[in-house]
Specification:
The chain is globular, with a radius of gyration of 18 Å. The chain has nine helices and 14 strands. The protein folds into two domains: about 130 residues, 3-Layer(aba) Sandwich (D-Maltodextrin-Binding Protein, domain 2); about 90 residues, D-Maltodextrin-Binding Protein, domain 2, CATH 3.40.190.10. Strands 1, 2, 6, 7, 8 and 14 form a six-stranded mixed β-sheet that branches. Strands 11-10-12-9-13 form a five-stranded mixed β-sheet, sandwiched between helices. Strands 3-4-5 form a three-stranded antiparallel β-sheet. By secondary structure, the chain is an alpha/beta fold. Helix 1 packs antiparallel against helix 6 and helix 2 packs across helix 8. Helices cover about 35% and strands about 25% of the residues. It binds glutamic acid (GLU). The site of glutamic acid has 12 residues, from helix 5 and strand 12.
Length: about 270
């Protein structure tokens, strides 16, 4: 599939998801009948990707399946919902999803609105540039550059607040849209978690086009977002995450999903009960 069509589909999907959210319509429990609604990314290869045949693939997708199974929901009982970065808290608060597994960093600002199980993965903010670019090698270089990230992400927030306040930062709805801008030279760099950037760089249609700069600009601990105050669900998800690590599934999944991109993942972080 061509890059442009992936991005167009992703952009359309973002619009659809936003429309659906704006119209409400979810139950207030994140489950309907015997089904469970789970929020994931649809446009992040390696983590959460809606494939052209309509199936879902990635580390976050498999983590979500494992947790759902431990909660008593087999795969055919899962409704996958797109959870763009800026919509995650709303989807949880409105009860549109039971939980969100979508490269979702745990931080204090978000903890005021939702609770987190986990963490289940640790990564760091990095930069993706065009393969022939040698002008961006450190954070300070960004202050004179055009940078792209996503609305509602910690990546954009970190840039504005501390990393490069003077950079010309564009914020779009999804990282795949930034990638198109990077290829077209509308922007000079895309910034977010290295785990996400490595997934884009490794896609067949992107081979040789982009490179990661290799900076560790922040610590991003991925958690599973759920309704604030639902301690019972949080406890159950934490138990499932601990089991996923102790039974070897975590290791198997990170190898499977980050092996192809060559992303050097860190050991499983300890779940905070
Ligand atoms: N992990 C970061 C965040 O939660 C960046 C990735 C994302 O936007 O999903 O904001």
């Amino acid at each position: 599939m061509k890059l442009r069509s992936v991005s167009a589909a992703a952009a359309a999907a973002v619009v659809l998801a936003l429309t659906a959210t704006a119209c409400g319509g979810g139950s207030d429990s994140g489950s309907n009948g015997d089904k469970i609604n789970i929020g994931i990314k649809f446009d992040q290869p390696g983590l959460g990707l809606k494939t052209p045949d309509g199936t879902y693939a990635g580390f976050d997708v498999d983590v979500a399946k494992y947790v759902a199974k431990e909660l008593g929901y087999s795969e055919d009982k899962i409704n996958w919902k797109q959870a763009p970065s800026a919509e995650r808290e709303n989807l949880i608060k409105n009860g549109d999803v039971k939980f969100v597994v979508a490269s979702y960093s745990i931080n204090d600002k978000r903890k005021k609105e939702v609770d987190f199980a986990g963490p289940y993965f640790l990564t760091h903010q990095d930069l993706l540039v065009r393969a022939d670019d040698n002008t961006i090698t450190k954070v300070e270089d960004l202050n004179s550059k055009k940078l792209c990230s996503v609305t509602g992400s910690t990546s954009a927030q970190n840039v504005k607040e501390k990393l490069a306040p003077k950079a010309n930062l564009q914020q779009l709805g999804g990282y795949s849209e930034c990638l198109t801008g990077l290829e077209n030279k509308a922007v000079d760099a895309l910034t977010t978690d290295a785990s996400i950037l490595a997934g884009y760089a490794a896609q067949k249609e992107n081979q040789g086009k982009f490179k990661l700069v290799g900076l560790k600009m922040s610590d991003e601990n991925y958690g599973i977002g759920l309704k604030k105050g639902d301690d019972e669900l949080r406890g159950k998800i934490n138990k499932a995450l601990e089991k996923m690590v102790s039974d070897g599934t975590w290791e198997k999944l990170v190898k499977e999903h980050f092996g192809p991109s060559g992303y050097k993942y860190e050991p499983a972080p300890k779940v905070q009960n």
